[in-house]
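I wish you would study the pair of lines that follows with an eye to the fold:

===
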Amino acid sequence: MRAGLRRRTTRADTGYGAFLSYSGERDRAVLPLVQNAIEKLPRPWYRFPRTRIFLDYSGVPIGAELWGKIVAGLSRSEWLVVVASPEAAGSKWVDREIEWWLANRSPETILLVLSAGSLFWDEEAGDWDRARSTALPPRLFGVFASEPVYKTLKWRADANGVPRPDIDAIAVGIAAVIRGVSEADVKSEGYQQTKRNLRWARTAIGALVILLVVALIAAVVARVQSNRAEEQAKIATARLMASVADTKMATDVRAALLLAVAAYRLDPSPRHQAALLRANLASPKVARYVAAPAEVTALQSSADGRTVVAGLADGQVVTWAPGGSVTTSVARLPGEIRSLAVAADGRTVLATDGASITLWGSNSGRPDFGVPGASEVDVVAVSASGKFGAVHRRQTKAVEGTPGTVDIIDNAAGRVLSSHPIDRAVTSMVFTDDTALRLLETGGKVRQISLRGGADRDLSPFDTDNACGDGQDGGELSPDGSSFACAVLPGIPAPVFRLRPTPSAVRPEPGYVGVAMPRRSAPAVLSRSARIAAVPSADAGFYVGPVTGEPRPPEPPPLITGTAVDFDRKLLRFLGTSETQLVSASGRLITLWDLAQRDRLAKSLAVPIVKGCNSCEPSLSLSPDGRTAVITGQDKDPGESALNSDVVIIQQLGPNPSRQLSIPGLSGKLAWRADGTMLAIAANPASGYERRVFPPKPHLETPFEVTVLSSPPPQISVEAAGVSSVSPTAVSLDSRGRAYLHDLATGGINSEFIPLGGAVDTDHVVEAGIDAAGEFLVMRDAEHISVYDLAREQNAHDIDGKDAQSVLFAGRHLLIRRKDSIEIWDRTGSHRERTIPFRSTRNSAAQLAAAADANVVVAKDEAGYLTVFAADGTNLGELEPDSVWHVPSAVALSADGRYLVTVNPGPAFSGGVDGTLIERDISPDGLIRAACAHAGPDLTGAEWNALMGVARPAQARCP
């Protein structure tokens, strides 16, 4: 029986071209190769093999009934290929296979393949030679009428000398016989089929390449579309943030600032830069925020304004240095802090949670005091020196208005000095000094307890016990103990009552804070001097106004908004002795307010510039790096030069703006060399324009050279100036339209000429300018604009100027402000690059300022409002006038568009005040930095969800 049989999977409905009958290990190793070669002869790649071969070595499964499988193979085969060898000649299996074939098939379908041994045909006998045919199975003797065609399996030595069977030759030979064609045809067909298959393969490869390219393109398109979808989703989310920020600007500036930052960081577009600028300018009196560890329940400020003390719902007492970024925990009680007080220097704090008292200070050792049973503490006070404290205890089982006790405490010793019974509930206590304590009782009665002997005096402003009126709440004593306020009905001016200095003194007249709609449930909060009061409004916000004798002042104070204030808990205080800074709290947030603050971007510097005349605005120019401002105008303190109050101020900007230099008796137009190494001042005639100014060289210690250019003749002013970037010369133009070429080394005039050839009437020049390189001059009259090429001394181009309001060179660009637009041209005036639509709702624009690349443009109208535009024309926002005295101001923008600077002269009267220079960083990173610094803590997850209701992107937060 044959061993080691394998199974080859075949289709059940197909037959075999041939059955290989063999025996011996040698043939068992070779014939699978022959079988594979025949079946793999070239054919179309999509068809089954032309000839399938049955080989029992791989065609019969192990364990099957062997002969039945062999018969099945024989019966489905068209040819019997007998592999003749000595082993086959002695095999009974080969004999049985031949016997079955002869019984069921024709001998003509038997093909002999000589593998080993020999085959000899005996012509005389007409049969195989039985003696010499050692490879022929016995059953094949006497079968063939003539010598049949047979094939020989040849062996050839390989490169190593090892004999190898010629598989391809025998496979072609067997296939040719089975298919009834010549071997040459089989080989030719194989060649042709191989060529066809190669063509198919190349076509398939080409198609696959095309499909791959299409797939790659589709993937790229899908990726682009996915990125675009993600980008659109980011933009939509950013727009939602900006929209919510806009709605919060009047009521929650912190949220508005943080959402605007998130919007811009998610989509840094001009649209969201505008939202960022709006948020920084909104509710300008909000200075900054800080977050406490828990909800604030009590709030006080030290008299020196350096320390804010807050009591928290978790029993902590924290201090905060206004302007700092964090609070510091200094004490803790078991329960919610109900009242606290602080010494003038902020170094001593007394706090209570009702059941216990804690004293914190640099020398106190922070002792804690217990509260006697059946009583609770509701009000505490500390003297300005921090030496004494006061505690008001009331009976816990008593109704409001029943007796209580005030204990005077020696803070250093930590003991009670004296106790004083009180007939009514106390709302406020204030030490006027280390000798007296004043108490405000409900209804408006005021008592004073002497620490020396315990004398008790009535200082109430009225003889009645209800100074505030029936059902009206009393507020708190002012920090100096001189006054108190009452809550009133909406629409009624808030009264402020002054205390009698002595019980027998004449009753002082009350003061009033006239507001539009005070809130009835909370009284006014008084400054330390009681001259200013903050009155809660009926809605969000509060009013801050002076306490006057007029119930209804002619101009009620403006409403201050920006964040929530917990008036019910009296969490609004003036900061120290200031009458313009306040501190408030709501929830965990503590807010610093600055009523003198222009906005959160503004950095103000005093400059001694005052109003010259109603239409005389100062001149302002920034150095190319934006870190030096040069101003010409009228000096506030002309000193010995009383007949000539002109002055040039050189002001350093940046983190150390203390350096300020002045050149008295000089005015004119300012021009910088493009690299910032030189400042040229084209002087006007001096002493009321009665004499020329010749160029004395100023001796100033500046990082750049300063030179003065000779002035025009008397009565003639300078209209424009410029410094050449390629030669040591400068150019100026006077009001008659005459140009001067100056030597920078001396400032003297080398030559003069009239820039003719253009449409502008040089005798009636309204406005002129010279570009930063000193190469082009622009002039404007009532109807035309002409650009003159200074190097070629010829007119370059003319532009219609009928509705032009101002012109300006910015780097290599020329800007023209018209009635309803701002046009940006190349500096030669030959090509208009773009137009920014803009029509002011107020008076026409008075001045333009722009970055060197014109990517940021600022337009100032006659009312002083500044409108900022981005490169694509987006209106980034409007800044209110910086001028306080309603006098013309000047505006400039640094070359990189980062710094916006205005100069606002003071009023021109004896003993007047300085003017103001205001610098703002309006760059995106400057706006983000300012917003994050003033907003304080980032939005919590709960706050974000309440505001937005969408997932928070990772970059949507302060950097």
